[in-house]
Amino acid sequence: MISHKKYMQHAISLAKKGGNSVCPNPAVGCLIVKRGQIVGKGYHKICGGKHAEKIALDEAGNKANNSIMYVTLEPCSHWGKTPPCTEEIVNAGVREIVVGMKDPNPRVNGCEILKLRGLRTRIGILEKECMKLNEGYIKYVKKKVPFVCLKAGMSLDGKIATVIGKSKYITGKESLEMVHKLRNDIGLVMVGINTIIKDDPLLDTRLIKGEDTIKLIIDTNLKISLKAKAMKNPKNVIIACSERAPKVKMKKLEKMGVRIIKTKTKNNLVDLNKAMKQLAKLGYYNVLLEGGSLINASMINEKLVDKVMLFTSSKIIGDDGKGVIGPLGIKELNKAISLKDTHIKKIGKDILVEGYL
Hints:
357 residues, nine-stranded mixed beta sheet, five-stranded mixed beta sheet
């Protein structure tokens, strides 16, 4: 009996190799199997590059005839930067296709087309895992805003800093390494200007020697210092500011290579909804929010946070420390935010709680 789940799991592991370089395209992995042997495999490596199906078909060559294809996402059926994969699949003589999840893009109808062309089609194999792989892409397609994961390292009593703002390091080495891997996987780190001014963070991936991250800084009045550590590579910096921010500094930053997102103010601050929509238009659909309590609360209040990852140490800081999330205006317990699909795991001496809003 063919183990469809085994092959799909292999395809998912391939898809993960694409990382954030595929944005704004989805991460896709593909296997071609014939008589129980893998004859071709591929994954989408970079936006504008060959699709996973094409790479796998090229590797399989003539062996693709009368084979089974496993692909994590429904094959494309329209012309874009590359030809439709459905034609490549049919021309190669693939007999059956097993698909992890349907593409949320309404332009894609690959499964139906392949079925009409005579291929046996199965869809929904390890669907939940395939959807998790592309949760950013799914939200991007459906709502035109990025998928935001709020991450924080905090004390046992929910504080991210002491009364005078000291926060290095609340959590342990293992948690820090995991955060750097998260930054590398997601590719874009978001903070507010207060974090830049108080902590002057690098926001990089040095602990795992990963790729340089894109830094999104919410800075209503362009207070950022040109010597801030996050400005080390200006071309990898995006600043969201108010339309009323100083024009001279705005031009100076742009001349350095910084990309500027301008919005009208909302409560005298950057309009976060509009900023997120503009970020999506730039092609970014995954965001790791590492902000302070006020921006964390603002993003939650605007319903822009999809997931939280809270790394909790065994330290106790006290009530005069700075909380992880600022005021949310919740008065009744039945109005409190409850996480869904919650998972708890031990990371070194810390505890990680993650779940979806």
